[in-house]
Amino acid sequence: MREIINMIVVLSLICAASGTLLVNLKQATKARIEQQVLLNVQGPTLMAVLKGCDNDPIADRKKVGDVTLFPARKDGKLSGVALEAFAAGYSGDIGVIVGFDVNEDKLIGIGVTTQTETPGVGTRIMQQGFLKQFRGHSLDGLDLSSRGGDIDSVSGATYSSTGAVDAVRKALETYRRIKPQIATLWAS
Amino acid sequence: MPSVIKEFTKGLWDELPPFRVVLGLCPTLAVTSTAENGLGMGAAVLFVLTLSNAIISALRKIIPGKVRIACFIVIAASLVVAVELLMQAYTYSLYQRLGIFVPLIVVNCIILGRAEAFASRNGVIPSIADGLGMGLGFTMSLTFLGALRETLGNGTVFGIPVPWEAFRPAHLMVMAPGAFICLGLILAGMNAFNRHMSRRKGEIPTEPKNAACASCAACNLCATARKEN
Q1: At what angle do helices B124-154 and B176-200 cross, to 10 degrees?
Q2: Is residue A159 part of a domain?
Q3: How do residues B138-168 score in pLDDT, each as one tens digit?
Q4: Which of A149, B109, B161, B163 is the most buried (most CB within 10 A)?
Q5: What's the number of domains chain A is made of?
Q6: In B, which residues are within 8 Å of A39 by CB distance?
Q7: Partner residue opposite A11 with nearest CB, options B71, B81, B90
Q8: What is the pTM (predicted TM-score) of this model?
Q9: Which residues in chain B have Cβ-Cβ distances shorter than 8 Å to A33?
């Protein structure tokens, strides 16, 4: 009996100690990890979408509800915002960063952040041929040509193209919803 | 003091984890496509191994024998999660490249093997020396294998092109079969070298004396078999 109690007590104590250590370490590194993930996963795409801005969109990011907004400034004035949205592709979610021009109410451009599409087929949605269709597109009528819009899908990759366009449309809805707040967010 | 130095140096050649004892092959084969990956993986193992050896040997008197493996795993797993968090926070690109193999350090034979065979039977200082030596040997081995594969398969070392004009890299070497080919060549080379050395000393060349038996406490089959002979 003594032996059993001894085993339980020692094992529990070791587990408790390591649990405490890990909780503290997790909290201590949380902010930095979030920063690193943004920098390495979303960062390159984000900078490509918002190129030409003269601030650091990741450092200036702000959250509205559960949406993270990345602002782009030019000559000190807010010129655009970017946000990420996800939609189901052929295999798994496709993550897309969409940049919006806040002054002219149109798309700046889009970039794909995360995807697990078929290499060589679905991954062609990441090529300029598909992506450039969104550059400077207005907020209306953005849909696949098969659904009455003017975006041509990548041939042979209908699911992937649909996923990308769905994600852009989700981002568009979010943008419309939070548009009134955007101007006041970075008013400084 | 001499024994501490002995515990430290044995991991560098006589019981070199991946090449002499042939332990911890999963990361050895999987992540060594470049020298940098090998070095990063080795450093993570070095950190976990040294600390787990230190903690386990400090706690060895209060850990009950029947639950010792569970305790060792909890300690190793906590250290691995700590390494994973630190890697994410400070070297994110390395973390992305090593991927699943960082959490898999928990089940690396070397960690549990050293805990069971050494740290649970020796004092804190020799255990730290043992962990440092083994970890350093592992790091060097992985960096060497990574550098070899990167040179042959990609024509670079640590990302710097090899100054070797006529050399055409064979892409095979950075893929999985290349890992086996290089490992086999290294093992053969080390065996040939050891035989040569023992012949020069006038000993009869035999199988590697240390083989895995010194570090493998899990089974007593070899020892019993040897006694019976």
Answers
A1: 120
A2: yes
A3: 999 999 999 999 988 888 888 888 777 667 7
A4: B109
A5: 1
A6: 92
A7: B71
A8: 0.75
A9: 85, 88-89
